[in-house]
Amino acid sequence: MTPAEALPGWAALLVAFCVLCGASLTLAGAVGVVRFRSFFERIHAPTLATSFGAAGILLGSMIFFSVLQSRPVLHEVLIFVFVTVTTPVTLMLLARAALFRNRAEGNPGVPSRADMLSSAQGSLGGERR
Amino acid sequence: MSRVLPYPLLTASLLLMWLLLNGFSPGHVVLGLAVAVFASRVMVALHPGKPRLRRWQLIPRLFLLVVADVVKSNVAVTSIILQGKRRQWTAGFVAIPLKLRDEIGLAVLACIITSTPGTAWIDYDQASGVLLIHVLDLADEEEWRELIRTRYEALLREIFE
């Protein structure tokens, strides 16, 4: 692999910008996990890291290696696709476990199954299929 | 065709993935092809419904729409996090009745909703087709119902159903 010094200035700036953006978004996500007040709010914070946080860092990596090896490097596209496709699995698993537990304990603030169905029915105002 | 290659699209994407990961060489084409054909035949055992793409021309539009929305909500959620206690927000659940029934379409919708910061897919009731999402900055429930149904569901139904 070519050493990083071989990278031209414009590419170095571009790579630094992308990586910095991605890293800042990921950091913001981490801060959010601390700042938010409940489980269901916290679940939103890591998606910053898995969407554009990851995209920024991966874009930087793509530019870096494409410029150095003077051929397009596409591994990062695959990484991004896999991250995007697998995140919902984990998030849904966590969310549904939390929902199940909250419902079983009868905690307020979480809609029961009947609440959920009736609120959806109500919103339709009779135009049910 | 369907006996040897039950999922031609899956086989092709697996081969493409293999070549992207390992670099292009005749040896890797053969090896990747073997892996792809074997893996897609294993897939038969899982009996997934065959995805039917009715109007694939709409996929780029959906993609651009999602990218734009993800950018917007990244900015919105980051600003909520950084402003901390100075900004008030109300999080809450929204139940949305969906007409979309296609499994692949629902899976895509789950990916979209989850990868958009600020919305999270919580529960889906298969019998009634009611989806429960959690929204971080919930101003108006009805607005969110309309948003999901007109922006994404309508497009996904056109593509998959």
Search tags:
heterodimer; A: 129 residues; mainly alpha; elongated; disordered C terminus; B: 161 residues; 2 domains; three-stranded antiparallel β-sheet; 57% helix
Task: Describe the structure in your own words.
The complex is a heterodimer of chains A (129) and B (161). Chain A has 129 residues and is mainly alpha-helical. Helix content of chain A is 76%, strand content 0%. Chain A has one domain. In chain A, α1 packs antiparallel against α3 and α3 (46-69) runs antiparallel to α4. By secondary structure, chain B is mainly α. Chain B folds into 2 domains: 8-44, no CATH class; 56-160, no CATH class. Chain B is 57% helix and 12% strand. In chain B, a hairpin with a 4-residue loop joins β2 and β3 (130-135). In chain B, α1 runs antiparallel to α2 (26-44) and α4 (103-115) crosses α5 (141-160). The longest helix of chain B is centred in the middle third of the chain and has 25 residues, at 59-83. Chain B is globular. Chain A binds chain B through residues 25, 28-29, 31-32, 35-36, 38, 40-41, 43-45, 47-48, 50-52, 74-75, 77-78, 84-85, 87-88, 91-92, 95-96, 99, 110-111, 113, 115-117, 119-121, 123-124, 128-129, and chain B through 17, 20-21, 70-71, 74, 77-78, 80-82, 84, 91, 93, 95-97, 99, 110-111, 113-123, 125, 128, 130, 132, 134, 136, 141-142, 145.
